[in-house]
Amino acid sequence: MTKFVLATHNQNKLKELERILAPLHISVETAQLEEVEETGKSFAENAFLKAEAACRKTGLPAVADDSGLMVDALNGAPGVYSARYAGAGASDTDRIEKLLDAMKDVPEQARKAKFVCSICCVFPDGTKITAEGECPGKIAFAPEGNDGFGYDPVFLVDRKSFAQLTSQEKDEISHRGRALRAFAAELEKRKEIYG
C-alpha cells in the first residue's frame, strides 16, 4: 500500500478522503503540519499551496483538497472563503445562519448552488497531479438532516440535503467523491511515479 500524507486539519474531511482512497490501495496519514495560509484566488491554487507545503515538510507525496460552496444568487460566494464566511473561529452553524440570512429573500427557483472540490497531489520530485469535481444542487430554506458537516444540512440534491444521505450515497455524488475518482484515474495512469 502506498503511503501519502494528507494535508488537512479537518477530521471530517480526513475520514471522507480515507474512505474514498482506501479501495485504491492508498493509505493516508496526517502529519503535524502548520496551517497554510490560503491566499489562492481559486480552489485549485489553495489545494496546491497546502499539498506543496506538506510534501516539502514530510518528504512524502502529499494530497490536499480545497473545496467550498458557490451560490449563484450570491455571485459565487462564499466560494474560496467558505470556511471563513462567518469570520475566524465561526462554527458550521454560524456559517449556515449567515448564508440563510443572505438568502432569505431569494425564491426557490433562484437558489441554485454547487459544491466544488479541487484536489492536488505533489510528489517529492516536483510532479503534480490535479483533479476537480462539482456537485450541483440548491440551497434549502432551513437545515435538514443530522449527518455531514459544513454546509451539508442546507445543500439539497434531489430534495435531500447532504446531511440526510448515508456516507456511501454522499461519496457517490459529492464534489469530493467526483474529484477523488478523477484523481485516482490520473494516479492510475501514472503508477510509475509512486508504485
TrEMBL record:
Coiled coil spans: none
Keyword annotations from UniProtKB, A to Z: Hydrolase, Magnesium, Metal-binding, Nucleotide metabolism, Nucleotide-binding
Homology family: Belongs to the HAM1 NTPase family.
UniProt entry tagged with the keyword Zinc: no
Lineage: Bacteria, Bacillati, Bacillota, Clostridia, Eubacteriales
Catalytic activity: XTP + H2O = XMP + diphosphate + H(+); dITP + H2O = dIMP + diphosphate + H(+); ITP + H2O = IMP + diphosphate + H(+)
Subunit structure: Homodimer.
CDD domains (alphabetical): HAM1
Binding site for substrate: T8, H9, N10, Q11, N12, K13, S67, F149, G150, Y151, D152, K170, H175, R176
GO molecular function, one term: ITP diphosphatase activity
Name recorded for this polypeptide: dITP/XTP pyrophosphatase
Class of enzymatic activity (EC top level): hydrolase
Cofactor requirements of the protein: Mg(2+)
Active site feature: D66
Known role: Pyrophosphatase that catalyzes the hydrolysis of nucleoside triphosphates to their monophosphate derivatives, with a high preference for the non-canonical purine nucleotides XTP (xanthosine triphosphate), dITP (deoxyinosine triphosphate) and ITP. Seems to function as a house-cleaning enzyme that removes non-canonical purine nucleotides from the nucleotide pool, thus preventing their incorporation into DNA/RNA and avoiding chromosomal lesions.
Pfam family, one: Ham1p_like
Record Gene3D superfamilies: 3.90.950.10
UniProt remark on cofactor binding: Binds 1 Mg(2+) ion per subunit.
Entry EC no(s): 3.6.1.66
Domain of life per record: Bacteria
Residues that, per the record, bind Mg(2+): E37, D66
